[in-house]
Amino acid sequence: MSAEPELGVQRVTMPKWGLSMTEGRVVEWLVGEGTGVRRGTSLVEIETEKSVGVVEAVQEGVLRRIVAPAGARVPVGGTIAVLADPDVPEEIVEQVVADAQVQLAAGDVEETGGPQLAVADVEGRTITATLSGAGPETVVLVHGFGGDKNNWAFVQDALSNTYRCLAIDLPGHGSSDKDVGDGSLEHLASVFSGWLEQMENGPVHLVGHSLGGAVAVAVARSRPDQVRSVTLVAPAGLGSPPDVEYLRGFAEATARRELNPLLSRLFADKRFVTRQMTEDLLRYKRIDGVSQALRQLLQTLLDGDRQALDLIGTLGELAVPVVLVWGAEDRVLPAPDVSGLPPRVSAHVVPGVGHMVPIEQPAQVVDAVREAVAAASRRPDPYQAS
Amino acid sequence: MARKISYRQAINEALVQEMERDENVIVLGEDNAGGEGAPGERDAWGGVLGVTKGLYERFPGRVLDTPISESAFVGAAIGAATAGKRPVVELMFIDFMGVCFDQIYNQAAKFRYMFGGNAITPVVIRTMYGAGLRAAAQHSQALYSVFTHIPGLKVVLPATPYDAKGLLIQAIRDNDPVIFCEHKALYDTVGDVPVESYAIPFGEASIVRSGGDVSIVALGRMVAVASEAATELAGAGVDAEVIDLRTTSPMDTDTVLESVEKTGRLVVVDEAPPRCNIATDVAALVASQGFEHLQAPVQMVTAPHTPVPFSAALEDLYIPDPSRVVAAVKLAMEKGS
């Protein structure tokens, strides 16, 4: 979305969820013309070739005009609606709408604000990430086992409105080098810290999903100077009985028919498993070295039928704010009894959501990150204060 | 990390990466070294359409330029495969396969079986097929059905640059003889291909587009034709599923049957003439194993039972096009509903 505060008019544009997205289809408007909205109000459902997501309002205003009705296909960056303060004259809104229609008709739409690919060399390994947004605070997103930076597409898009935001491909994943060393959590944390040193000067807010949650905790423990807060989304290492069949099956699956039923376990709503999601994962899994990397990481995750990682103690020792989000319907790493966690952890269990909270309910993750950032700014930064 | 390269470059990259990974991989074929060493000529021609360009200098002694004697050099490649090499031999046009057929179907295809599983023949025969280049009846055929017929051979027909690279890498690593069929008209098509090395397992069809109204099964160049038809049909309210078989031997029968179970209607698009081709094979599969799911007769879109014409106007009519696929789908939708 692009803001034009001087006019009190804001164009709602087709987001860019992930590097490969070029256009989206408007599924349904969730608010009608003339409705007042607040920052964070869900405006519209957008379908891409990979999935369906929701665009939220970035600021307060009235939805003055819908430019792209349900069913319309719009290129990334194209204006799909106009938000404005109630006192903005109708002519100004009309002018913005008319300009937008001319642009769309001419196909003259510029992609703005989408994520950029950032490639780094960490001790001879290629580590890739997407970078978007700007702001005084930096948020770094760390995906889970078998995932990649694109898992965060919705979350990253929303966070980029207020923060500088990076989503990494961990070793063995996405476009990063497939070498995972000994596959240990310490190794992943050390590569991550090396990468972060290259990308950022100051401490950041870490957000980790699943295995990435364990990596975030490990980094916060080993390099407290790099971390201002930790947001954990269905993290490994907090005692949940894991779905061993899923984890081993995912590591071994090579065919679509093996992978598809496994993927549906990740979500409360199976419609999130699209043809393109399965295809993208198969393409990842076919790359030389990936199977080996996943098997290696599995040894870090599993001890027989239980989780090999136990980070509950570490969590209690961290000096930074910790916010936890978990889907109540998570079958891969079911939410543990959160009352057993250190009391300083702010925990949210979200009903009707499975393991892939960043895809099923990105707004919950975004809210959790904002809570963590706010909590971090309330407490003195020990590395700045002295 | 993926970037856009052509089908031709994807095949070349697969060869480079496998030759770097395994020194037993060698390349043989006509005109591989054409031009190399001639005055003012540093680089070899790289085969008739330049697919192996750059390999001759990069892998000294491992790219063999052969005389125009298919029976000799295909036989040599098969022999080398039995002796521990992993040869990739280029047999310019699939139409010329006849002169070395004994080596292929009565020797290479039989070794593993006749030696009780103790012999392997990891040879890849790369070859060009298909009409559309005004190359007339002896250089334009779609003869993959002939090889699909023979037990002991694997038959591969990549439809995209991504599949071309991943299927060729799999073909080179496979321990059986593989007939790798490249459509001439696809060489300049471009698509996302990972920089990394990857192998696509044989016998897994690709669901190019998912849909609930009708299953369109296609292969090779016909996948793009079927996809174009599906896009047009979507505008007319018909939601077609497009399946790319990728390999005809082994064939992914499960994906075809599951799709027809869902849609109840089947259209098969095949560039080969209509008798004993892949379309009839898929139609027979569904008729015998999925009959209860069919709501209408199977429609087949194929070339006619004639040689490929040299007349440009006739050749254009010979090749199945999207409008014929759309017409077949409409027929499948009308009947039985």
Describe the structure.
The complex is a heterodimer of chains A (386) and B (337). Chain A is α/β, with parallel strands linked by helices. Chain A folds into two domains: 2-106, RNA polymerase II/Efflux pump adaptor protein, barrel-sandwich hybrid domain (OB fold (Dihydrolipoamide Acetyltransferase, E2P), Beta Barrel); 116-385, Alpha/Beta hydrolase fold, catalytic domain (Rossmann fold). Chain A has helices spanning 90-106, 153-159, 185-199, 211-222, 244-252, 256-263, 275-286, 290-301, 312-317, 357-360, 362-378, 382-385; strands at 2-4, 9-13, 23-29, 36-37, 42-47, 52-56, 61-66, 73-75, 79-84, 116-122, 125-132, 138-142, 164-168, 204-209, 227-233, 302-303, 306-307, 322-327, 345-350. In chain A, strand 5 and strand 6 form a beta hairpin. In chain A, helix 2 crosses helix 11 (362-378). Mean pLDDT of chain A is 91; it is low at 1-6. In chain B, the strands form three sheets. A seven-stranded mixed beta sheet of chain B has the order 3-2-4-5-7-6-12, sandwiched between helices. A five-stranded mixed beta sheet of chain B has the order 9-11-10-13-14, with helices on both faces. In chain B, strands 1-8 form a two-stranded antiparallel sheet. Chain B is α/β, with parallel strands linked by helices. Chain B contains twelve helices and 14 strands. The mean pLDDT of chain B is 95. Classes of the chains: A alpha/beta (386), B alpha/beta (337). Chains A and B meet through helix 7 of A and strand 9 of B.
Question: Would you spell out the secondary-structure blueprint of this structure?
Answer:
The complex is a heterodimer of chains A (386) and B (337).
Chain A: E1 2-4, E2 9-13, E3 23-29, E4 36-37, E5 42-47, E6 52-56, E7 61-66, E8 73-75, E9 79-84, H1 90-106, E10 116-122, E11 125-132, E12 138-142, H2 153-159, E13 164-168, H3 185-199, E14 204-209, H4 211-222, E15 227-233, H5 244-252, H6 256-263, H7 275-286, H8 290-301, E16 302-303, E17 306-307, H9 312-317, E18 322-327, E19 345-350, H10 357-360, H11 362-378, H12 382-385
Helix pairs in contact in A: 2-11, 3-4, 5-8
Chain B: E1 2-6, H1 7-21, E2 25-29, H2 55-58, E3 63-65, H3 70-82, E4 86-93, H4 101-108, H5 111-114, E5 124-129, H6 144-148, E6 154-156, H7 161-173, E7 178-183, E8 190-194, E9 206-209, E10 214-218, H8 222-235, E11 240-244, E12 247-249, H9 253-263, E13 266-269, H10 278-289, E14 299-301, H11 312-318, H12 322-334
Parallel strand pairs in B: 2-3, 2-4, 4-5, 5-7, 6-7, 10-11, 10-13, 13-14
Antiparallel strand pairs in B: 1-8, 6-12, 9-11
